[in-house]
Amino acid sequence: MPITERIQAEISSHPVVLFMKGTPQFPMCGFSSRTVVALREAGADMSTLHSVNVLEDPEVRANLPRISNWPTFPQLFINGELIGGCDITLELFESGELARMLAETQKA
């Protein structure tokens, strides 16, 4: 399967997808770590959070920024839509919006 289709399949198959360096249990960069903490504190179901370790998949790491038009990692997608990286996720968490968005995915 071409990389573009693989990435789209990841995004469309899960309500919350985090493309990150490392895993939620073992983040490999500060930005990924802060994003995971924000998701956890906003009420994300960590047992069902789907993450993709871009350090283990160089094809995804190289191609996702071109597909999403977002240059850095982590990249958070909710309901198939790019939310953004660490800074945007933290802003949404601070405002309470992230918790609302995550709650919507758990109702569906």
Automatic annotation (TrEMBL):
Q: State the protein's name.
A: Glutaredoxin
- Enumerate the UniProt keywords alphabetically: 2Fe-2S, Iron, Iron-sulfur, Metal-binding, Redox-active center
Glutaredoxin domain: from which residue to which, for each copy? 16-83
Q: Which family does it belong to?
A: Belongs to the glutaredoxin family. Monothiol subfamily.
- Gene Ontology molecular functions: 2 iron, 2 sulfur cluster binding; disulfide oxidoreductase activity; metal ion binding
UniProt-listed InterPro entries: Glutaredoxin, GRX_PICOT-like, Monothiol_GRX, Monothiol_GRX-rel, Thioredoxin-like_sf
| Residues that, per the record, bind glutathione | 21, 61, 73, 86-87
- Among the Pfam families in the record, one is Glutaredoxin
Where [2Fe-2S] cluster is bound, by residue? 29
Q: Does the keyword Iron apply?
A: yes
